[in-house]
């Protein structure tokens, strides 16, 4: 028990003194996940908005697959990207495996379905209300997509936050394609896994606390966004 | 009505002329096996206010949507000044729905978004937004989120937005059915004013009082058929059909 308390004390110490190793890992994690979420947001908005508005054969199936992929296990996403990027894979020549870029790609694969499916749902709900009015105004399909994305902005923000929460907390995908290489591809989650198994509980715990704090911050932001939307009757 | 530089006129000289009369020929709309609109032949040629009345389920809203091009007839056709409906005829129309549909944006942004969709240049929008808000009596609310307005204000905004498009024909689907008397009056004033400025108003209403106050002619629908179309005065004094008689006396129309 005293060991645990001691580890906890040292963990807090690492955070308070902004331990360089911890900061390095934190920055890499944020870089990878924020980049992935930015790319996944652009893809997700376009895919989700288009799926809500355009009618084409197989639209229902695509929407169903997208929803199902929301629950894609990170290790599977990692495995798929690993196979694509490995030397025998189609993109092997790019030599991206075990780089931060590979981790970003894996997280884009993981997060795009989340943001895409939530965007589609938000747009579809709005479209039910807006469809006749927008068509009466003479809106083209692409103008309808743009209108829905803007009017669903509060729900899209929550979708992005949900995607970020998923990306920053996952370990399977970045572990497989990043390889957890010190100073190169070591993120918070892979470091926690490694340091715990090495018995370096203090660093693992410190990273865990930071990760938890991030999760709380994302949740607080979600609640804040929803409150704001309700106040303007934009929910 | 239209800006001389408007692409509509440049594109087709015919369109600069009034869009009336509108003729419905054998108009039929079936949902499944049920004929919601069942072979309507009609001509409306006045620039005045036309009321479409009838019991629930008679097909009033569907008729309005067909005339506005929101749904496509199963059979028959609609001619605006002899021209078949297309995108260009639809662009000279506007519609106000039963429940106000407002974007999750400010009052002013709701109007300017609509103007943008109709191809009004950005620099011309501000003036027309200002005029529309003045018309709706919402000048002080330009930056208010549209959806926090009261029901009456929302519907006034919808009407002002529709009028800002400078339509030749304005459709309204029971625009005051959930409004209080003061809000209803405000909407009716705007409609009379629009009609005086030469806009053709076609209004679905359940409210006999409203039809008496506004309409110059009345179309009475019953089970998807137009069983009566005549001057408002004679319609209310002496409806020709049994259905309209019962409807006006407040009975059940079977």
Architecture blueprint of SSEs:
The complex is a heterodimer of chains A (235) and B (254).
Chain A: H1 2-16, H2 20-53, H3 59-69, H4 74-85, H5 100-136, H6 141-151, H7 153-169, H8 172-178, H9 188-198, H10 201-231
Helix pairs in contact in A: 1-10, 2-5, 2-6, 2-7, 3-5, 4-5, 4-8, 5-6, 5-7, 5-8, 7-10, 9-10
Chain B: H1 7-11, E1 22-31, E2 34-44, E3 49-53, H2 60-68, E4 75-80, E5 83-84, H3 87-90, E6 93-96, H4 107-117, H5 122-136, H6 151-164, E7 169-173, H7 181-196, E8 200-204, H8 208-214, E9 217-222, E10 225-231, H9 232-237, H10 242-248
Tell me what you see in this structure.
Chain A is mainly α and 235 residues long. Chain A has one domain: MetI-like (MetI-like fold). Chain A contains 10 helices and no strands. Chain A has helices at residues 2-16, 20-53, 59-69, 74-85, 100-136, 141-151, 153-169, 172-178, 188-198, 201-231. Chain B is an alpha/beta fold and 254 residues long. Chain B has a single domain (7-248), classed as P-loop containing nucleotide triphosphate hydrolases (Rossmann fold). Helices cover 37% and strands 24% of the residues of chain B. Chain B contains 10 helices and 10 strands. A 6-stranded mixed sheet of chain B has the order 6-7-8-3-9-10, with helices on both faces. In chain B, helix 4 (107-117) runs parallel beside helix 6 and helix 5 (122-136) packs across helix 6 (151-164). The longest helix of chain B is centred in the last third of the chain and has 16 residues, at 181-196. The radius of gyration of chain B is 18 Å and the shape is globular.
Q: End-to-end span of chain B in angstroms?
A: 43 Å
Gyration radius of chain A (Cα, Å) is 21 Å
Q: What portion of the residues of chain A fall into strands of 2 or more residues?
A: under 5%
Overall mean pLDDT of chain B stands at: 90
